[in-house]
Write a structure and sequence with these properties.
The complex is a heterodimer. Chain A is mainly alpha-helical. Chain A folds into 2 domains: 103 residues, no CATH class; 445 residues, Cytochrome c oxidase-like, subunit I domain (Cytochrome C Oxidase, Chain A). Chain A is 63% helix and 1% strand. A two-stranded antiparallel sheet of chain A has the order 1-2. In chain A, helix 5 packs antiparallel against helix 7 and helix 10 runs parallel beside helix 12. The longest helix of chain A is centred in the middle third of the chain and has 35 residues. By secondary structure, chain B is α+β, with helices and mostly antiparallel strands. Chain B has 7 helices and 10 strands. Chain B has a 5-stranded mixed sheet with strand order 3-2-1-5-8, with no helix packed on it. Chain B has a 5-stranded mixed sheet with strand order 4-10-9-6-7. The radius of gyration of chain B is 32 Å and the shape is elongated. The chains are: A mainly alpha, B alpha+beta. At the A-B interface, helix 6, helix 11, helix 12, helix 13 and helix 14 of A face helix 5, helix 6, strand 7 and strand 9 of B.
C-alpha cells in the first residue's frame, strides 16, 4: 500500500486523505449498466415483495383494488433508489461516511480523466460531460414529446373518426405536455448552462460537480418513470392533472407524481449549483458589470426554479398521500379543496414559463453581439428586464385561475401584476432590437434564428395580453387559443431560441462544425410549419373550440386540417435539423477554437476544451461585448455641435 | 509657497459662449433625414396599416356561430378589438426593425469572420426612455381598461352573490347548474324544480346561475353569451347573464373532465318570455315565485 499523502494540484501541494485498499475500489466499476441492473433489480424486488404483502383482494373505499397502486409505487421507489445507487450517485457521501474520503486521483477519475467515451455513460462530474449528457437526454425527451404531438395532431386532423380511444388520446396530451415541459426546462439550463457557463465565467468546473451529475441522472430517472406511465394506463388528465379528476386515474398517476417529485429534486439541486457557481466562481476581475448577460439569465432562471418547483413537489406529494394513505388535502368529499391544488400547481406553473424563456432569451442576447459585431444594447436594461421578470413571476400565478371561482375579487390584482410583466419583457425585446439597430448582420443560422424568435415572441406577447385580461379571458380560457398562445411562447420563442443557442455553441461543445445549410433548411421549414399550425389553432380557438378534446363540432374542421398539415411540416423540419446536428457531430469538419471571432472567455479555450478548462485561470479586464467601431454619425454630430463633449466609444 | 491672496479669483460672469448646437426639433429632423430612420418610420407605418385590419378580422371567427348574445360578450369583443388596436404600433415598429435589418443591414455571409465592425452603440437614452414610456403607457392602458371592463362584466353577471342572497323578484330567473361526468343538468327552483338537459333561458331577464359539480371539475361555458365559470365539486360558484338575443347557442365543457370530455356539450335555447314559461309548464313546472 503506497498511500501518498499529498498531491500536486495546479502547482499547489494539497494534503490527501489516506488511501485504503486499491485506488478507487468499487467506485471505478459503476456505470450506466450497473445503474440499470440496480434500478431494475430493486424495482423487481420491491414489486414482488409488495405484491406478497398486500392482502389479496384488498380495495379502497371506492372499491378500487389497492395492489396495482402499491406495487407500481414500490417499483418506482425501487427504481429511483436502485438506479441512483447503481450508477454511483452516492459514492462520495458513502466514502466520506466510511472515513475513506476521495483522493485527488479519485476525484479526477470521477471527472472522467483519460476515460474516453466511457465517461459519457458514468456518473461523471466534469461539467462538460454533464452538458453533453443533458443535451442527449433533452433530445430524447423532446423527440418523445414531439412524436406524441404528431399523434395528437393526427387524431385532430382526422375529423371523421376516432383514431385513438378517448383514454389513450387523453393520456397522449397529458404525457406530451409534461414531457415537453421537462424537455424545455432542461433545454438551455441543462446542456448550455452546464457546458458553457463555467467556462464563460472563467471557472474550472461548477461549484458542486457531484450535485451537477446527480441533477442529470435524476432527470434520467424521472424520464424513465414518465415513459413507464404509458404502460400503466397513461396520464389521462392533462399535464396539470387537476384534482379530483386525477384521483380517478389509473396507477399511471403515481408515475406522474413520482416523476415530478424526483424532477423537482433534480431542479433544486441544479438551481443551487448554478446560483452558487455564478455567485462565487467568477474569474478575478469579472465584476457584475463585466459578467456576460447569459450568466444573469441562468442566475434568474435558477432563482425562479428554486422557489417554484417545491410547490409542484408539495402538490404531488399531497396528491400521492391522498391516493395511498387516504389523506384528504384535495378531496372535497372529505373537506379538501380543489382550489388548494390549483394554487399550488400554478405557483409552479407560471414561474416555470419564465424558467424556460429567460435562459432562452439570454442565450440570444449573448450571441447577437458576436454576429452583429457591436456591443449589447443597454446592458443595464437587459439586467433590469431579467430582474423584473424574476420579481414579478411569483405574483401572477392566479391568472390561470380567473375562471375557477376561487376568489373573484383577486382577479383585479392578478390582472394588474400580469399586465405589468409586459414591461420587463418589453425591455428584453428593446435590447434585442437595439442590438440589431444599425448592426451589419453576419447571416449565420444562430443570429437568423433571432428574427424568428422575435417574430414569434411578439405574437405570443400580444395574444398574452388578451389572456391576461379577465374579460377577454372569459372567452379564451380553456380554448385552443390558449394552446396556440403558449406554444408561441414556449416553442416559438423558447425552443427556437434553444436551437439557436445549440447552433451557436455546437462547435465548442462537440468540436465539429455544424452543417448550417441543412440545419437552416430544417429550422426554417419548422418555422413555416409552426406558423401554419398555430395560426390555424388561433382561429379554432377564436371560433370557440375547447382544448383537450378529440372530437368536435364540424365548425372547427377546416382550421384543424390546416393545423395538422402544419404540424407534419414542423415534424419534417425538426427531423432535418436533427439530421444535420447528428451528421455534423459524427462526421463534420473539426472546428477551430473560435470560429465566430467571439471575445467571450468560453471561446478563448482550445477545442475540445481540456479537463478543468484553463491551465491558468484568466483575469478579466474589460466589459463584455467590446465589439464595434466609433459611430460615424457621432462624428457628424460632433462636427455640428462643435464644443459638445461626445462620449468616446468603448470608454469604460 | 502660495499665500491666501494667491488664490485664483473667480472670473467675472460672462455669457455662455455661443454654440452652433441646433434646436431640438432641428435635431429630430436631422435624425429623420438619416436613411435608416426614414426607412424604418415608413416601414412601421406600412406594417401598422397592414396589421390594423386584424382588429376586425379577429372578431370574424369569434362571431362565426352568431353575434354576441349578451352585454358581457359585447364587452369581451370590444376589449379584444381595442387591445389589438393599441398593440399594433409596437408590433409594427418591432417588425419594421426586423424587416429593415434583413433588407438593408445585411452584412457579410459565409464562414469567414467579418472584418467590418458595426457602430458601437452601448445605449441611447432617448431611445430607451421612449420605449419605456410607450410600453408603460400601453401597459397602463391595458390595466385601466381591464379593471373597468372587469367591473363592468362582473356587474352584468350580477356579481358573485351567494345563493341565499339572490333576489326572488319576479324578473330574475335562477338556474341551478349541475355538472357530472359527462352531462349537464339544469334545475329551475322557481318552476317546481323542473330539471332539463337543455338550458332554456328567457330573453332580457336576469339569469342567476349556481354552478356546482358532482364529481370532478368541469367548466360551464356559454360560448355566445360570454359566460364561463368552473363547476367545482364541493363548492357553488355564482355567475349570471342577461341574454339579449333569441336563438340556439352552444354550451361546452371547457375543463378536461375525463374520458368523454369532448362530448360534454349541449345547447342553450334563448326564448321569448312567454315561450320560456310555456316550456316550463310543458315540462311540469308551474310558476312558484
Amino acid at each position: 500500500m503506497s498511500a501518498t499523502t499529498t498531491a500536486m494540484v495546479f502547482g499547489t501541494e494539497i494534503h490527501q486523505p489516506v488511501q485504503h485498499g486499491k485506488p478507487g475500489g468499487i467506485m471505478r466499476r459503476l456505470n450506466i449498466v450497473t445503474g440499470l441492473i440496480g434500478g431494475i433489480g430493486l424495482a423487481a424486488v420491491a414489486g414482488v415483495v409488495t405484491n406478497a404483502l398486500v392482502p389479496s383482494g384488498a380495495s379502497t373505499a371506492t372499491f378500487a383494488p389497492v395492489a396495482p397502486d402499491l406495487v407500481y409505487l414500490a417499483m418506482l421507489v425501487g427504481w429511483t433508489i436502485g438506479f441512483s445507487v447503481g450508477i454511483g450517485a452516492f459514492v462520495g457521501p458513502i466514502r466520506w461516511f466510511l472515513g475513506r474520503d476521495l483522493t485527488h486521483a479519485d476525484a479526477e477519475y470521477m471527472a472522467g480523466k483519460d476515460l474516453g467515451w466511457v465517461r459519457y455513460f458514468k456518473f461523471t462530474t466534469d461539467h462538460k460531460v454533464v452538458g453533453i449528457q443533458y443535451l442527449v437526454v433533452f433530445a430524447i425527451i423532446l423527440g418523445f414529446g414531439g412524436l406524441l404531438a404528431m399523434l395528437i395532431r393526427t387524431e385532430l386532423g382526422v375529423t371523421w373518426a376516432e383514431v385513438f380511444s378517448p383514454g389513450f388520446y387523453n393520456s397522449m396530451i397529458g404525457t406530451h405536455g409534461i414531457a415537453m415541459i421537462i424537455a424545455m426546462i432542461i433545454s438551455v439550463m441543462g446542456p448550455i448552462a452546464n457546458f458553457i457557463m463555467p467556462i464563460m465565467i472563467g471557472a474550472r468546473d461548477m461549484a458542486f460537480p457531484r450535485l451537477n451529475a446527480l441533477s442529470l441522472w435524476l432527470v434520467v430517472v424521472a424520464a424513465v418513470m414518465l415513459i413507464s406511465t404509458l404502460f400503466q394506463g397513461g396520464i389521462q388528465d392533462g399535464w396539470s392533472v387537476y384534482q379530483p379528476l386525477a384521483s380517478q386515474a389509473p396507477p399511471a398517476m403515481l408515475g406522474y407524481q413520482m416523476t415530478i417529485i424526483v424532477f423537482a429534486i433534480s431542479t433544486g439541486v441544479a438551481s443551487v449549483n448554478l446560483i452558487v457557481t455564478a455567485l462565487t466562481m467568477r474569474a478575478k476581475g469579472m465584476t457584475w458589470s463585466r459578467t456576460p448577460i447569459f450568466v444573469y439569465g441562468v442566475f434568474g432562471a435558477a432563482l425562479m426554479g428554486l422557489y417554484a418547483f417545491p410547490f409542484f413537489q408539495y402538490s404531488q406529494i399531497m396528491a400521492l398521500t391522498d391516493r395511498i394513505f387516504d389523506t384528504s388535502f384535495f378531496n372535497p368529499l372529505q373537506g379538501g379543496s380543489v382550489w388548494l391544488y390549483e394554487n399550488l400547481f400554478w405557483l409552479l406553473g407560471h414561474p416555470e414559463v419564465y424558467v424556460i424563456l429567460i435562459p432562452s432569451t439570454a442565450i440570444l442576447l449573448e450571441l447577437m453581439p458576436v454576429f452583429l459585431r457591436k456591443p449589447l444594447f443597454s446592458f443595464n436594461f437587459a439586467i433590469a428586464g431579467i430582474v423584473g421578470v424574476v420579481a414579478l413571476s411569483g405574483l401572477v400565478w392566479a391568472h390561470h385561475m380567473y375562471m375557477t371561482g376561487w376568489a373573484p375579487a383577486a382577479n383585479y390584482p392578478f390582472m394588474l401584476s400580469t399586465e405589468m410583466i409586459s414591461i420587463p419583457v418589453g425591455f428584453l425585446v428593446l435590447v434585442m432590437i437595439g442590438t440589431m439597430w444599425r448592426g451589419l448582420v453576419w447571416t449565420r443560422l444562430p443570429v437568423m434564428a433571432v428574427y424568428a424568435v422575435i417574430f414569434n415572441k411578439m405574437i405570443g406577447g400580444v395574444t398574452g395580453i388578451y389572456l391576461s385580461d379577465v374579460p377577454a379571458n372569459q372567452f379564451f380560457h380553456g380554448s385552443m387559443f390558449v394552446v396556440a398562445h403558449f406554444h408561441y411562447m414556449l416553442m416559438g420563442a423558447g425552443l427556437f431560441g434553444a436551437m439557436a443557442g445549440l447552433a451557436f455553441y455546437f462547435p465548442k461543445m462537440t468540436g465539429r462544425i455544424l452543417d448550417e445549410r441543412t440545419a437552416s433548411i430544417g429550422f426554417w421549414t419548422a418555422f413555416v410549419g409552426f406558423q401554419i399550425t398555430f395560426m390555424a389553432m388561433f382561429v379554432a380557438g377564436l371560433q370557440g373550440m375547447p382544448r383537450r378534446v378529440l372530437q368536435f363540432d364540424s365548425l372547427f374542421n377546416a382550421p384543424n386540417w390546416i393545423s395538422t398539415i402544419g404540424a407534419y411540416i414542423i415534424g419534417l423540419g425538426m427531423l432535418v435539423f436533427a439530421g444535420a446536428v447528428i451528421s455534423s457531430w459524427i462526421s463534420g469538419d473539426k472546428a477551430p477554437a473560435n470560429p465566430f471571432g467571439s471575445k467571450s472567455l468560453e471561446w478563448q479555450t482550445p477545442t475540445p476544451v481540456p479537463l478543468e478548462n484553463f491551465a491558468v485561470l484568466p483575469v478579466v479586464t474589460e466589459r463584455p461585448y467590446n465589439y464595434g467601431v466609433a459611430d460615424p454619425y457621432e462624428k457628424e454630430l460632433a462636427a455640428i455641435d462643435g464644443d459638445l463633449d461626445v462620449q468616446k466609444v468603448g470608454s469604460q | 509657497m502660495t499665500t491666501i491672496d494667491d488664490r485664483p479669483v473667480n472670473p467675472p460672469d460672462e455669457p455662455e459662449p455661443p454654440t452652433n448646437r441646433p434646436p431640438s426639433m432641428e435635431r429630430v429632423r436631422m435624425w429623420l433625414r438619416r436613411p435608416y430612420a426614414k426607412g424604418i418610420v415608413i416601414l412601421t407605418i406600412i406594417i401598422g396599416l397592414a396589421l390594423l385590419p386584424l382588429a376586425w378580422l379577429i372578431l370574424v371567427p369569434m362571431n362565426v356561430t352568431g353575434a354576441p348574445a349578451s352585454a358581457i360578450m359585447q364587452d369581451i369583443e370590444t376589449t379584444v378589438f381595442w387591445f389589438t388596436i393599441v398593440s399594433v404600433p409596437i408590433v409594427a415598429f418591432v417588425y419594421a426593425v426586423l424587416v429593415y435589418s434583413l433588407i438593408k443591414w445585411r452584412g457579410h455571409s459565409g464562414d469567414t469572420i467579418p472584418e467590418d465592425e458595426s457602430p458601437a452603440i452601448r445605449s441611447n437614452t432617448i431611445g430607451v426612455v421612449l420605449w419605456t414610456a410607450f410600453t408603460s403607457a400601453l401597459a397602463f392602458f391595458l390595466v385601466v381598461w381591464g379593471l373597468v371592463a372587469l367591473a363592468q362584466i362582473t356587474q352584468n353577471a350580477y356579481g358573485t352573490i351567494s345563493a341565499d342572497q339572490q333576489p326572488g323578484d319576479a324578473q330574475s330567473v335562477i338556474v341551478n347548474v349541475t355538472a357530472q361526468q359527462w352531462v349537464w343538468t339544469f334545475q329551475y327552483p322557481q318552476h317546481d324544480n323542473v330539471t332539463t338537459d337543455v338550458l332554456y333561458l328567457p330573453k332580457d331577464r336576469p339569469i342567476y346561475f349556481n354552478v356546482t359539480s358532482k364529481d370532478v371539475i368541469h367548466n360551464f361555458w356559454l360560448v355566445e353569451l360570454g359566460v364561463k365559470i368552473d363547476a367545482n365539486p364541493g363548492a357553488i360558484t355564482q355567475t349570471g347573464v342577461t341574454p339579449n338575443k333569441l336563438g340556439t347557442f352552444n354550451l361546452r365543457c371547457a375543463e378536461l373532465c375525463g374520458m368523454h370530455h369532448a362530448y360534454m356539450e349541449t345547447s342553450v335555447e334563448v326564448l321569448e318570455d312567454r315561450a320560456f314559461n310555456s316550456v316550463m309548464r310543458e315540462l311540469g313546472g308551474g310558476r312558484t315565485s
